Amino acid sequence: MESLRFSLKAAAIGALAVLGLWGAGCDQNSTPKKLRLEDIGETDMQKILGPQPEKTEALYTGQVVLGPGVRPPQGAKLFLIVRLESPKGQMVGGKVVDAPSFPLPFEVSGNDLFAPSDSLSSRPVFLAARMDQDGDPMTRQPGDLEAATQAPVTIGQKKVVLVLSVLSGS
């Protein structure tokens, strides 16, 4: 979330810079005022970026735990994934945790989905977690960990437990 705010602030600075140059007029002798990050207040940000989504209610909550004898790989990232139809189905949302400690409580809200949560109420939804050593969720290597719900979860479900185990086939 912090990186999103930084990106939005950077976009706002760019927009203000362009507007500042345009507002300075076309007079070639005028020098545009330099903009500083400190000069941009929350009100200015809201005017430039428009209304931002409010934090939405949790759709699913629970925790990711390590299975018996499982150790997390050093420097691995944890990917929490929302999938449709099956534990390996289409990915419709997710989040990344850079340095997880276990047990890791989690919350999945509408902000973590790629599309509005309305579409989830009529289809089976599964939650999955992958702990990936190289930080790329598309690659699989020995030592990566995974977990998934075996049955669909329902919107509002609490206390979902994802038990990480060594990637099957490793």
Descriptive notes:
- The chain is an alpha+beta fold and 170 residues long.
- It has 2 domains: 2-49, no CATH class; 58-166, Sandwich (Immunoglobulin-like).
- Helices cover 18% and strands 31% of the residues.
- The chain has helices at residues 2-23, 42-49, and strands at 58-66, 77-84, 91-97, 104-109, 125-132, 145-148, 157-166.
- A 7-stranded mixed β-sheet has the order 3-2-5-6-7-1-4, with no helix packed on it.
- The longest helix has 22 residues, at 2-23.
- It is globular, with a radius of gyration of 22 Å.
Instruction: Give the percentage of residues in beta strands.
Output: 25-35%
- Biggest β-sheet description: 7 strands, mixed
Number of domains: 2
Question: What is the terminal-to-terminal distance?
Answer: 33 Å
User: Stretches where pLDDT falls below 50 for ≥5 residues?
Assistant: 1-8, 16-26
CATH fold group of the largest domain: Immunoglobulin-like
Supply the number of helical segments: 2
What is the overall pLDDT average?
A: 78
| Text of the CATH class of the largest domain | Mainly Beta
Helix content: 10-25%
Q: Do you know the CATH architecture of the largest domain?
A: Sandwich
Order of helices and strands: HHEEEEEEE
- What is the strand arrangement across the widest sheet? 3-2-5-6-7-1-4
